[in-house]
Each structure stands twice: as structure tokens, then as C-alpha cells.
Design a protein that fits this description.
Number of domains: 2
Number of helices: 14
Largest sheet: 6 strands, mixed
Distance between the termini: 28 Å
Radius of gyration: 22 Å
CATH class of the largest domain: Alpha Beta
Strand order of the largest sheet: 3-2-1-4-5-6
CATH architecture of the largest domain: 3-Layer(aba) Sandwich
Helix content: 40-55%
Number of strands: 8
Order of helices and strands: EHHEHHEHEEEHHEEHHHHHHH
CATH superfamily of the largest domain: 5'-nuclease
CATH topology of the largest domain: Rossmann fold
């Protein structure tokens, strides 16, 4: 069995910012539809490209209780979610199920932990897992039948989607997947408002972990660390850095029951797209499923469009909610 496991909000934000300048809206009431357009295209492209047996999308539902207990400022620096995303999110979830993707969410539990739990359970059963996310934390899940599929960086979209196996994770960060959490504990994670050791960057963290094995090895060697200027700082902040490790290490002991697969509801998707007045997307979808001839679709597309004509696709803006991590 091959699973596609999608970090929902990570992809929602990318879909929104990719389409933001097009300002796509339902003509009848100006309800925003830009993220819906991007979301549907992304899901269908991923399913077609990866050919999984099962597809699942994981969403956050409220804050992460375990993170906030350790660090009340966790993610506190992020801007409010754009109103257009808030408005579209229920419709995004509805469309996701209609397309045949399962949706998993649990109040007070971060989607990352749910994905990591699913990976543990599914991979133990011999299933292959493809994690779709730009979040570097998922490097710690990579190995065996598990890979990460990272979207193109906004700064260099020509790179395309990147498949990260253990060798690619090691090449990217300088440490193997099993040391990613130790690495992040030392350097911190600005996107989650987790401060690392001041002045310790990737090169120093990699050097220490290579020399001393893991975070505890680094902390135990505080009296001999190089550069020498970090010695007192490491000793003084040892407990905070251990707390960092708890924050960045996924919990994988939550419940996850795959359940029965969800079938794609083609008629339901057609009705949804008609309701949202996403007419060109509806025609493409119908053509793909043989519900309308390609010639008819082409002819219709030449006539007046009820929805605004999309402009040339702009680069997604770098946003504070889901920062570019790769």
C-alpha cells in the first residue's frame, strides 16, 4: 500500500498565495475562490504524479496543547490567518473529501504529530508513505518506506518538487534524519518561534553533532566545545535546549485509524464547482472524466467566463504563517 500524506495548512497557504494576485471570486457574491482553485489543482496533480493507493490530508484544529505547555510563545509571532483562507477553509475540506481524500484532524493536536503518528503505524505495517510538506521537521520521519515531497521554494520555483530520502536529508542539513530534531533544538526554528542557542548556526550545530553524536553528547561536552565562547552559554541554557528537543520531536502516540478508503464523488465535485461558480475548473474536470467533450470544453472556454480571467501566475509571497523552510 502506498499512502500520500499531505500537510494540509502548509499546502493551503501555498495555494492561497500562489493565486492571491488573481483575486478569483464567485461572481454572485464575491466569495473568494483563489485558494480553492490552487488547492484542487495541487491535489489532483499530486495524486496523478504519485499514483498512491490512499490519500489523506491532515489539518491543525486549534493550537497544539503539548507545545503551548512547554513554550507559551509557540508560534506567537505569526500573523493572523488571511481572511480569505478562513472563509475558504470549510469549503476546502468539503472539496477534499469529494475528491476522494480522507481528512484527519484532532483538536489540540498539531497536524505534524498526526502525520508522524500515521507514518509510524503505516510504515510498521509495511506501507510506503509520501509526506507532502515544506516543513523541515519532517526530515526526522524520512527513512525506509518513508520519503518527503517538498514543494518548490518560492525563491526558486524552477527547482520543482523535491523528493527527500535519507541521503537527500543528510545532504540538505548535514545530519541524517535521526539527528534532525537534535539539530533543530540547537539552531532553533524561527517559523515556530523556537529560539536556538544564540550565535549557533547550521555549521556549528552540524560540527558538534558530528563530533559528539547527539544533543545530550553536545551538552555533556560543554567544557570542551569549540568555539570556546559557547561553553558557558551551553551550560547555562542546557535545560532550555532540552525543552527545544521536546518541542521539535514529533509525538507519535496519538490514535490513527485509517478506516475505509474514500471514493471520489465525481458528480459531487461537479456540483461543488458549479456552486462555487468555478466554471473553467469545472469544464476541465468534466473533460478529464469524459463528462463533456474536449471540443465542447474548448468552444465554451472561448466565450465569456462567469469568473474573472486569471492573470499570469505570480510567485507566492513569503508568508509568516507557513514560512519557506526549504
Amino acid at each position: 500500500m502506498r499512502w500520500l500524506l499531505i500537510d494540509g495548512f502548509n499546502l493551503v497557504f501555498r495555494s492561497h498565495f500562489a493565486m492571491e494576485r488573481s483575486n478569483l471570486r464567485r461572481q454572485s457574491d464575491q466569495f473568494p475562490t483563489g485558494a480553492l482553485h490552487g488547492w484542487m489543482k495541487s491535489l489532483l496533480d499530486l495524486r496523478e504524479g504519485e499514483q498512491p493507493d490512499r490519500c489523506a490530508v491532515f489539518f491543525d484544529l486549534g493550537g497544539s496543547d503539548r507545545h503551548l505547555e512547554v513554550l507559551p510563545e509557540y508560534k506567537a509571532q505569526r500573523d493572523e490567518t488571511p481572511e480569505d483562507i478562513v472563509l475558504q477553509l470549510p469549503e476546502i475540506k468539503r472539496l477534499t473529501v469529494l475528491l476522494g481524500f480522507q481528512v484527519f484532524e484532532r483538536r489540540g493536536v498539531e497536524a505534524d504529530d498526526l502525520i508522524a503518528t500515521a507514518v509510524r503505524i503505516l510504515s510498521a505495517a509495511g506501507d510506503a508513505c509520501v509526506i507532502v510538506s515544506a516543513d523541515k521537521d519532517f526530515g526526522q520521519c524520512v527513512g525506509g518506506p518513508v520519503v518527503q515531497l517538498a514543494p518548490p521554494p518560492t525563491a526558486n520555483p524552477a527547482l520543482g518538487w523535491r523528493r527527500l530520502d535519507p541521503a537527500a536529508v543528510t545532504e540538505k542539513f548535514g545530519v541524517p534524519p535521526e539527528r534532525i530534531a537534535d539539530y533543530l533544538a540547537l539552531v532553533g526554528d524561527a517559523s515556530d518561534n523556537i529560539p536556538g542557542l544564540k550565535g549557533v548556526g547550521p555549521k556549528t550545530a552540524v560540527k558538534w553533532l558530528t563530533e559528539y553524536g547527539d544533543l545530550e553528547g553536545v551538552l555533556a561536552a560543554a567544557d570542551t566545545l569549540q568555539p570556546e565562547r559557547f561553553r558557558e552559554q551551553v551550560k547555562a541554557e542546557a535545560e532550555r535546549i532540552r525543552s527545544n528537543l521536546r518541542l521539535v520531536t514529533f509525538r507519535t502516540d496519538f490514535e490513527f485509524e485509517p478506516g475505509a478508503p474514500v471514493a471520489e464523488d465525481i458528480a459531487g465535485v461537479e456540483a461543488f464547482l458549479a456552486e462555487m461558480e468555478m466554471h473553467s475548473t469545472l469544464r476541465r474536470y468534466q473533460t478529464k472524466h469524459g463528462r463533456v467533450s474536449a471540443a465542447s470544453s474548448s468552444a465554451e472556454s472561448e466565450g465569456p467566463k462567469p469568473e474573472p480571467k486569471p492573470k499570469a501566475k505570480a510567485k507566492p509571497a513569503a508568508d509568516a504563517q507557513q514560512g519557506e523552510l526549504f
